[in-house]
Every structure is written in C-alpha cells, then in structure tokens.
C-alpha cells in the first residue's frame, strides 16, 4: 500500500513516515502544499494523510480541488486543529476521516485500514483465491490455515492483483505501487519480488502474460 504524507513539520513528518515504513507501507512525503496536486494527478496513492496548515497552499484548498476533480482517493486529515468547526469544514470538504495531533500511531494505522475498506466498498474485507486469503484489515496473508510472512512490497503486489482477479496489471502499474520517490530500483526488482511470492504462495499463484503483465486467475465457482 502506497501512502502520500503531506506534512510540513519535519519532526512530525519523519516520525509518521518512519512508523509507517516499519509497518511495511510505501510512504512518499512532501512538505509544501504547492507540490501536492501535481503529485496526486500523476501518481497512484492508496491513502493521503493531509495536514491543513501547509506553506504554499492550505490543506483544505487542496482537498476541495481534489474532490472537484472527482479524485476519490481516501484522505485522512491529520492536524492540530481540534475545533468542531474545523472538523466540520474538513469532513464537508471531502475528507474520509479527521485525526487530531497528538495521536497514537496504532490508532492512525487502524484509521488508514478503515479508510481503505470503505474505499474498496467491501463489507467483508477478506478475499480468498486458490486457497490464499488476503485480509486488508490486518494486512495478513494466509495459505489455508498457515499465516505467510510477506515483505511490504510483496504484500503490495499480492494485494493489487487479488483486488482485481483476472485483470492483467503491467510491470509499470505494479512498480508504481511498490516504489516510493527516491527508491533505487533495479531493472529486475519486480521479477525478484514475484519469484519470492511464488515460492511462498505457489508457483502458479501469479501468472505472467509475456510482454503484457501479471495477473491472478479468478476464483473458480463451484456449483
């Protein structure tokens, strides 16, 4: 899962980014409001963590413009502004949630997962295909009754494919989900991750269409 962190305070931003990376999220961080809209129009993010008091352009203006453009990416406002009127303005502008600083990182993590579940439109978060179960709520992967450990990037690949079974995602689409800004990416890095996933979940779990991309077959219906 790729998170876009918009926070101008260096200490707070570094603390949030470090904690989320520790939880195997891919995190891109900007500190200037003027950079946000360009990034959101050209990059894929699963969740945006948005401060309100930003240099260049306010978080509320960014959020309103985002929703005017019909961009439905989940946005969680993370701010020290705790007045009821501020919360109302943020939610009315299109925020999915509103978190007041200081906060507990475990709570922020739970709110990120909740925003993702609402965004996906699934009342039941678990997905099972070919004996593999993905739980977005806990970010866990199970093979039958055994929990399988995946790295953050391996999980992001599996999640992207299991949310769209039968649909082919190109190498570029998958790389966009697993690489943050400034990451040094080797040309065969995606293939290495997929090889590791197949070793853990089965050699036929992820299929390849040469020159096109990767997919996970749809679950077979049993009648």
Automatic annotation (TrEMBL):
Residues 124-218 bind DNA. Keywords: Cytoplasm, DNA-binding, Phosphoprotein, Transcription, Transcription regulation, Two-component regulatory system. InterPro entries: CheY-like_superfamily, OmpR/PhoB-type_DNA-bd, Sig_transdc_resp-reg_receiver, WalR-like, WH-like_DNA-bd_sf. PROSITE patterns: OMPR_PHOB (PS51755), RESPONSE_REGULATORY (PS50110). The keyword Transcription applies. The modification 4-aspartylphosphate is found at residue 51. It comes from Noviherbaspirillum album. The keyword RNA-binding does not apply. Residues 2-116 form the Response regulatory domain. Residues 124-218 form the OmpR/PhoB-type domain. This is Response regulator. It is found in: Cytoplasm.
């Amino acid at each position: 899962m790729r998170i876009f962190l918009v926070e101008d305070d260096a200490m707070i931003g570094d603390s949030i980014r470090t904690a989320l990376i520790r939880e195997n999220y891919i995190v891109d961080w900007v500190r200037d409001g003027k950079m946000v809209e360009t990034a959101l129009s050209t990059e894929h993010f699963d969740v945006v963590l948005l401060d309100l008091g930003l240099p260049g352009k306010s978080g509320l203006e960014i959020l309103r413009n985002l929703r005017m453009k019909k961009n439905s990416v989940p946005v969680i406002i993370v701010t020290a502004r705790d007045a009821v009127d501020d919360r109302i303005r943020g939610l009315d502008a299109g925020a999915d949630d509103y978190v007041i600083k200081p906060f507990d990182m475990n709570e922020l993590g739970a709110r990120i997962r909740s925003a993702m579940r609402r965004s996906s439109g699934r009342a039941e978060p678990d997905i099972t295909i070919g004996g593999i179960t993905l739980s977005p709520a806990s970010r866990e992967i199970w093979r039958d009754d055994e929990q399988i450990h995946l790295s953050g990037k391996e999980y992001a690949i599996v999640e992207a494919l299991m949310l769209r079974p039968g649909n082919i995602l190109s190498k570029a689409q998958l790389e966009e989900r697993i690489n943050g800004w400034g990451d040094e990416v080797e040309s065969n890095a995606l293939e290495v991750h997929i090889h590791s996933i197949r070793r853990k979940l089965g050699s036929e779990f992820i299929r390849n269409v040469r020159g096109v991309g990767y997919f996970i077959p749809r679950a077979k219906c049993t009648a």
